[in-house]
Structure formats: structure tokens, C-alpha cells
């Protein structure tokens, strides 16, 4: 169960960080001085909730295993809306073939470098080694939610998924 007053904290943050997940307290930190729009906050909350989900589901070793961190960052970039076409156009980064995967990879590397003191080569290697498996892990959504309608469909599917296997 998530409690707003226990699991979310709004704080002023350094640099251009928008949020974070504190595994020690199971708390999501929202950087109130770096979030200026509701849509941005929605993406940050979704991104950090994916980290919280991974923390509960996969027992991620955030501090000692850079591959664990890389996997969660790949999943969060892939599923949170960080790499939507509109966000990429706003960043003046867009392409046609394979652009979503490129964005997810780049944002995962960037996130690792923001939270761990590792070389860029180490971050790139970790992301590359786990990319395919983690990019294709779409839990808890079952699909990449590209729009609000997609997110609602994914949530409906999540609510009904036991119905499909109950009679097997």
C-alpha cells in the first residue's frame, strides 16, 4: 500500500534532477524546484514508481550491482513516457528507425551517471548487457503506454489479468 505522506517527499534538489527513489526508506522524492509542469511530474512519478516496483519485485541491489540499476533505469525510461515522440521533439532529438530504443538507452546511461560514481564506459557496458531483457520486461503494464488511453488500457488489463488464468 502506498501512503502519500509516507512514501512521497517534495524537496528542493541540486542540479537538474527531477526526482529519485530512496530504497532505504522506500520513498519517492520529487524535486519541487525542478518540476514545472503537471505532465513532467506525472512522468517523474511514473519513472520512480517503476523503480519502487522493481525494488519490491526483483530485490534490486541498487548500490553494488550496476546491472540491477541499469535494468531498472531501462525499464523506467521505457515505460514512464520519458521517450515519447513529443518529449524527444522538445529536446530536439528525434529519428525514425529504432529511436525509442536509442532514447531509452541514452536516458538509462544518463540516469546511472547521475546517481553513481561510475565511468561512462561502465554505465554503457551495464546497459548494453541487460538491455534486451529489461527493455522487453513491460511489467506491471504489459505494454509501453504511449498515451493516456494506452495507460488506461494497460491498467484495465492489469486489473483483469487474473481473470484470464483463473480457469486454467
UniProtKB/TrEMBL annotation:
Per UniProt, the keywords (alphabetical) are:
Hydrolase, Metal-binding, Metalloprotease, Protease
Q: Which InterPro entries match?
A: Peptidase_M76_ATP23
Q: One Gene Ontology cellular component annotation?
A: mitochondrion
Top-rank taxon of the source lineage equals Eukaryota
Q: Name one GO molecular function term.
A: metal ion binding
What is a biological process (GO) this protein takes part in? mitochondrial protein processing
| Pfam families (UniProt xref) | Peptidase_M76
The enzyme's first-digit EC class, named in words, is hydrolase
Which Enzyme Commission numbers does its entry carry? 3.4.24.-
Identify its protein family: Belongs to the peptidase M76 family.
What is the protein's name according to its record? Mitochondrial inner membrane protease ATP23
Q: Which species is this UniProt entry from?
A: Leptocoma aspasia
